[in-house]
């Protein structure tokens, strides 16, 4: 199958998403460190579908999402640099390869950064629950996670069908 290795520079769109995603994610980690002294020994460890805490755990668990986020960021950033390894339809050829690679990479970039933003929001809410500012993470979280990850995937699929 035709899979050339192309050096395609990141678009302004991808760079903007990286700045937004990483910036918000880093702020959430900074928030955990700033609030560390006020956080009790037990923090929310898990939530049910409506955002209520259904398990409490050690405050060290606040670093699980940031750790996963950093791992995800590294892994997906490496995959962004290798669009020739992504999955494409059989109609990939020398005339449309650049369009397919860019679309795949942009979709991956959006998903990566939306995941970082979602992890940041969850971490922020976990700290707020732990210190008693709020009681639940919010009913809005599950729909936002589902819609937030589905939209870039659907956009990417639609764009793939439009590539000639």
From TrEMBL:
Keywords: Membrane, Transmembrane, Transmembrane helix. The chain crosses the membrane at residues 16-36, 56-79, 114-131, 137-158. InterPro entries: DUF1648. Pfam families: DUF1648 (PF07853). Residues 24-69 form the DUF1648 domain. This is DUF1648 domain-containing protein. It comes from Lysinibacillus pakistanensis.
């Amino acid at each position: 199958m035709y899979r050339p290795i192309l050096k395609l520079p990141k678009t302004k769109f991808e760079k903007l998403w990286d700045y937004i995603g990483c910036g918000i994610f880093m702020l959430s980690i900074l928030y955990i460190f700033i609030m560390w002294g006020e956080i009790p020994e037990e923090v929310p460890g898990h939530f049910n579908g409506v955002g209520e805490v259904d398990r409490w755990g050690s405050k060290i668990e606040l670093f699980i999402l940031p750790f996963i986020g950093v791992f995800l960021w590294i892994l997906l950033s490496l995959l962004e640099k290798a669009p020739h390894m992504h999955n494409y339809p059989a109609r990939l050829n020398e005339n449309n390869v650049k369009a397919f690679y860019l679309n795949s990479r942009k979709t991956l970039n959006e998903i990566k950064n939306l995941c970082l933003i979602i992890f940041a929001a969850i971490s922020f809410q976990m700290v707020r629950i732990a210190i008693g500012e709020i009681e639940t993470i919010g009913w809005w979280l599950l729909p936002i996670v589902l819609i937030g990850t589905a939209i870039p995937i659907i956009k990417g699929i639609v764009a793939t069908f439009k590539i000639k």
